[in-house]
Sequence to fold (246 residues):
Amino acid sequence: MFYGSPLSSQLGVLGEFTPQDAAARVRDEAGIYDKINGNRGAVPALDLIYEQVQSEPTDNGLYLRYLDAATIQTYLDVAHQFHEQLILDLQIGRSDPLTEVRRLEPFLRDPSVHIALDPEYAVGPNGVPLQTPGTITGAQINDVQNYLAGIVAQGKLPPKMLIIHQYLDGTVINGDTVRDTPGVSLVLNMDAFGDVATKVDKYRSFATRSYAQHKSFNIFLKQDSRVMSESDIEAINPQPDVIFYQ
Fold:
């Protein structure tokens, strides 16, 4: 899965390429995993930052800058063309997760569209992103899961992914209350960069959490001290279900 925003190359891989080029490259990357992971298969996807927190107040009062619908549609059209999945990434700011997910309902009725949440930027109604520690709760995750499950049931859609990008231990509160929800595949992404040993140890720690229904590993192409190969990642135990390139 390739992560980022077309607004800046500093935000991840998607800022480095056009939508068409990104889709072609992530398809090729998935093909590498497909060749080495036995019968598990590999599905390419793009994780697009739909809303990005700002350090200064915004007109909407939420410290959030949104991509316009036309840009999202461009990436969705490319995802359809290349038979890929599209994840819309939410940084929440002063809003709350369910309110922000609801904004995307027209896109979520497409079977290829899924959601990711960034807890560290969910600063509550009085916080300031990048200054105030962000958190989301198990109850908020359940609310989003229930909402996505409703869309799945109404539209007779395949399950929706809900990805939690977690970097710090305390950013998910009461994670043990998170429920398995039919129609939703919950993914816990270990969102950290650094040296290989530290990343793998942190991933294994996160993989034991009760809400890690599916496990995910993140590669930072610019920040990691060594970029792990596909074979390195396949050798991690337990094996990740989802791999991000950022």
Notes: The chain is about 30% helix and 20% strand.
